[in-house]
Amino acid sequence: MSETSWSIAQCEQGSPLDKTDTRILLMHVTGFSRIQLITQSAYELTTAQQQQFQVLLQRRAAGEPIAYLTGEREFFGLSFQTSPAVLIPRPDTELLVELALNYAPTGSALLDLGTGSGAIAIAIAHQRADLQVTAADISTAALAVAQSNAERLLPPHTLRLLHSNWYQALGTERYATIVSNPPYIVKDDPHLSQGDLRFEPLNALTDHGDGLNAYRHLISQANAHLLPQGWLLLEHGYDQAEAVRTLLEQHYFSGIQSWRDLAGIERVSGGQLI
């Protein structure tokens, strides 16, 4: 792009990115809505806006995720702040939220382990004011992002955030529902060096093993933190449902099943503590 002033229409025409990415970046730079980009297509970017847009174009062309460039991502109807300290919330994970909303008893306590941006816990708390929701993560940087999101999206004191390596800091606390989307990508999986995953926190993506280490721990230790008949609901990879169900069976869960996402893939498995 040249040093002369560019209109929104010219920015779209001259962008090396696809139309969707270009418009998201333009909305971020100008503060316009998607409709305003169309109705005000002759608007000329200021020098500062044009410079910011050019930098963002270059970073996106180099592969950086849109959610990190704009600092936000929509999830379950809410706009979450994101940063390289946390995984980018994905539509697949909305299934885990829907299941938690369905299975959590009225007025009960719910725990989200490995909360990251807080997307799962905050989406649940936003829909179910009757629940006492706790969200834990080992990363202080992730907890800072979750705290910021909670302050923006929830009434004060709605969500309790806890620095914990899985169950470590929970003591004797017990919950009616425990949910988690833990790291499940197998070490050295080629996808870790492709696309958006290259920029996301590695320890939130992979267990540096066979992809099941977190499930072994979460399931084997759940009996110390679930109430009787409490539900454990776990998101997992596209080919891990059977392995997760087997682990649940080995640790005396009942009603074990897997649920499919919109693509028909078994994306969440869980069961009730006997």
TrEMBL record:
Identification of the protein by name: Release factor glutamine methyltransferase
Alphabetical list of PANTHER family matching this protein: HEMK METHYLTRANSFERASE (PTHR18895), MTRF1L RELEASE FACTOR GLUTAMINE METHYLTRANSFERASE (PTHR18895:SF74)
Domain spans labelled Methyltransferase small: 93-187
UniProt: substrate binding residues: 181-184
Family annotation (InterPro entries): DNA_methylase_N6_adenine_CS, HemK-like, N5-glutamine_MTase, PrmC_N, RF_methyltr_PrmC, SAM-dependent_MTases_sf, Small_mtfrase_dom
Transmembrane segments: none
UniProt-recorded Gene Ontology molecular function terms: nucleic acid binding; peptide chain release factor N(5)-glutamine methyltransferase activity
Release factor glutamine methyltransferase N-terminal domain sequence ranges: 12-71
UniProt source species: Undibacterium oligocarboniphilum
Keywords for the protein's UniProt record, in alphabetical order: Methyltransferase, S-adenosyl-L-methionine, Transferase
Pfam families: MTS, PrmC_N
The enzyme's E.C. designation: 2.1.1.297
Name of the top EC class for this enzyme: transferase
One GO biological process term: methylation
Primary role: Methylates the class 1 translation termination release factors RF1/PrfA and RF2/PrfB on the glutamine residue of the universally conserved GGQ motif.
Annotated S-adenosyl-L-methionine binding sites: 114-118, 137, 166, 181
